[in-house]
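Shipment paperwork, digital attachment
Item: protein structure file
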Amino acid sequence: MLDQPIPQSSRRIQRLPNQRWQIYPQRTELAQKLAQLMNLTPVVSQLVINRGIHTLEEAQVFLYPESLKLPSPIEEFPDLAISLELLQNAIVSQEEIVICGDYDADGMTSTALLLRSLRWLGAKVDYAIPSRMHEGYGINKRIVEEYHSKGVGLILTVDNGISAFEPIARARELGLKVIVTDHHDIPQLLPPAHAILNPKLIAESSIYRGVAGVGVAYIVAVSLAEKMGQTQHILNSMLELFTLGTIADLAPLTGVNRHWVKRGLQQLPKSKLPGVQALIQVSGVKGQGGQGGQGGQGGQGGQGGEKLIGTSVLSSVGSSFSSPLPHSLSSQRSSSKSLKPEDIGFRLGPRINAIGRIADPQIVIELLTTDDVGIALERAMQCEAINQQRQQMCTQIEQEAIAIVEALYVTSLQQDRVLVIVEQNWHHGVIGIVASRLVERYGVPVFIGTYESETHIRGSARGIPEFHVFEALEYCRNLLGKFGGHKAAGGFSLETGNLGALRSRLSEFANKSLELQHLKPLLKIDTQVNLNQINSQLYQQLNIIEPCGIDNPDPVFWTPNVQVLQQEIVGKVHLKLTLAQTIDNQRHQIKAIAWRWRDYFPLPSRVDIAYKLRENNFNNNTTIELELLGTRVPTQSYLFSTPQVTPLRTTFEYNQRKYTCGIYQNGSSQELRIRNPEGKVLAVQSENTIGLLGTSREEAVEIDVSKVQYANIIQAALQALEKVRS
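Attachment content:
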């Protein structure tokens, strides 16, 4: 124990992001082997391993998704054949069809995709999307009865319908034919439709299991066009809409999604759809690479380019689609422009989603189905204006929510382990976005709602990795009205009188699910890279794992013990930095940006950093910079190497327990020692991932200190020692 109290620093206490770092185990031997076999660099091969790839065959498919051989979807989806027959018969007989869509990006792109394709194939087709504010999600009896009265004979749902038993039963009573296409979880009782297409109803091993609603719509549209012998001129446009919807809906970019999205991203910049071009124009998206239209596979107007695998469009590799498998990283760099998933996720997708959140989905449907350039630009400008309105609403609600949390709940978050916040006059269409921001800020699951009336609350929920949102809602079932969702997110409604009980019940569930160490945002990091390794060549090598997104995230690197040379606030809330690392007596500098990090200014003079690589093009000069995601007190710390006038010792609190810690000399090296209340000591030397844990050195066991439970307490100790040192 310390004899002296902890000295109080006269300097401003420096805050760092409240994070826990999880660094993937480094499989050096496997990475070297894979690098040699696939002609990769060790850094890239480690990235591949981190994504669950461990064999040459798996790596081949992952790195070159064009090589993926797809089975015919008609063999995978039991009801696809009857769906195609019903649709073809309706087209031939000119029976009226109505597409019932949804108001999110997946639902709207699905609706537009099938609307364009069915019209091209000669169908008499209309569409209906329920009101988010007045009707809520999915097909309903009002839509069924209204379109029956208009003479419609076939209803085709997209991105909804799997849980709509009563509306579909009503449609059957009225003599309507119904095809359900959806991708949401399967209820106990399936609706009485003539055909149901849902990837969650097919084999778990199927390569089609991960498609979103727009993926099911794409399979239907391409299969129908092929069945009717009219695949030319419409296939490219369908692939582009599939790509927009898949990324905007956060579907996993693995398997068949990766296979199709990679080609769709290459196709989008040269799209023939006026709406897509208008959306790209108003959002300021620029393709990656050389001149558009050069060097790509496929051609104009849908000629070639869409032999998406096999003797059929969906199931084989035709010569017009397949390209030689590259033998080096450099051959992956196509000369044609290509978008990246982030261009859709952060630029195009939000402008589409904003419409469904606070405006009329008809704007997006017209945008994506019109062939009139003027109408397309007008609708794209509407999307832009409404997205700006949505951004303002999100900012205002976020600021109001933070003020409420700081005033009422912040001191109890560790105890409650969940945040439940409800307020008047918040727009239901955007509170889900605010919930995500609050999760990022406070590191706990967030349930946020707004009063729709004096007696009714409607809300959205967002979780953290160790917390299952849908299971939490199930745990509160008797307190809720409607609810639904999945592991990461959900929606719910309840009577206002149940709000207090809901807070208690959710806190009870959270305390069963979460430990205190979970109440920090989790940052998953791929591998260590030193600043002298970062250059345009490394950046280009990373292209081979594109497209990145859900289940294939952007690579995240870390560098230890970096010196902060310069830092300044830009744009009111962002942090711009110049960083340096000294290697072999040579200093290597790089620029960095940290979005919305004003609260952490100024950073300490030395930190470990976690980041993504970004390309900065300015005045025809291209440089590679860092986008900071995290910082922490250096593990390979200058605390170890800087001579101390007096021994460096202190106490600190971690997970509501008190510890002592200090830097000690051990032979020629220094080591950090942390003692718990029971007298057990954790000892680790600088730059060593193996530490000792025990009551004495003789009986101590070796442990991997990079594991979360050890890494977190080491960081807490180092931060406490840094305060003493300063």
